[in-house]
Amino acid sequence: MERKEFLRVALGAGAGIAAARYIAMHDQASSDLRSALAGPIAHYRRMEHAVSSEHLAPAVEAHLSLARVTVDQSLRTSGGYSVLAEIAGMTAWLAIDRGEPAIARARYNEAIRRAEQADHPLLTAYMVASLGQFETDFGNPRIGLQHIARAEATLDRSAPDAARAWLSSVRAVTAGKLQDQKATLAALKLADTLTDHPKGEPVWPWVFPFDCGKLASVRAVALGRLGDIDGAQTAFAEADPHLTGPKPRALGLIAHARVLVAAGRLEEGCVAIQASLRTGQHLGSRRIVNEVEQFIEDIPSGSSEARSLTRALKGEV
């Protein structure tokens, strides 16, 4: 081989090795950056159930702003957009707790858009169904059902059973809100079939496993909305030991209180509401306080229980 040819080949090989090393280093840097962005949000999501949204939201909003700039400048990858979707979804959840539905809706739509940019069907389905759940809870169950159907259509065959179980549970609660008994029971049956009863590791983007305790909570709410008092009571008894987070427990108690009132047990229902209200006031949860206010409006206005709750709501007791 001539000297010039030898140098050409040698230099070409060296450039190839250097390029390969550069690509590997770049990929590693991108992975590290994604992990750094994703790390805090996982901790925020785990602490949300026990921390005031008023205190947590500014940190998460700031993290979302940082992530937007970082992804736009340095991380336009599936992983980068996935992290953005998760953070936007978290800000939506906190907005719900603060009683700011317009912000929540906007953030969920951003989360959906980012999940679609990531080309991540499971994440997209999670965010779309979360928007559906939000619409149902805020009085728009038919719109919620449309989002849920879209989420179901988004899932591919690789989706884990836990994801399908959760999605069926969201459908069950929404169908219950619409008084569709057949659809509610069918969705509950499917969720029960798919639920991993032994505790297992959650599948991202879920941070907690969808287990028998969560399914019992869903069943209680769905059956309560259908007016199945006995079924709801049984489900609430099963769910109770699993409602350990302050906010989820408060919301569960409100749903249980409604069932107790429907069963003619107003005093017991109001005791449960008092406990929920204390949690809502302590953690500054506008969502919980709003639910309590709605409960008070729905019971006889002249009753001693209603007067007592109204005083508690005003901080007079």
Question: Could you spell the SSE succession in H and E letters?
Answer: HHHHHHHHHHHHHH
Overall pLDDT metric: 89
Low-confidence stretches: 14-26
**How large a portion of the residues is in β-strands, by DSSP E?**
under 5%
Overall description:
The chain is mostly helical. The chain has 3 domains: 79 residues, no CATH class; 83 residues; 71 residues, no CATH class. Helix content is 79%, strand content 0%. It contains 14 helices and no strands. α7 runs antiparallel to α8. The radius of gyration is 24 Å and the shape is globular. About 4% of the residues have low confidence. This is Transcriptional regulator.
Summary of the model, kept short:
The protein is mainly alpha-helical. 79% of the residues lie in helices and 0% in strands. Helix 1 packs antiparallel against helix 2 and helix 8 (181-194) packs antiparallel against helix 9 (212-226).
Secondary-structure map:
Blueprint: H1 3-47, H2 53-74, H3 78-97, H4 101-117, H5 121-137, H6 141-154, H7 161-177, H8 181-194, H9 212-226, H10 229-239, H11 246-262, H12 266-282, H13 286-298, H14 304-313
Helix pairs in contact: 1-2, 1-3, 2-3, 3-4, 3-5, 4-5, 5-6, 5-7, 6-7, 7-8, 7-9, 8-9, 9-10, 9-11, 10-11, 11-12, 11-13, 12-13, 12-14, 13-14
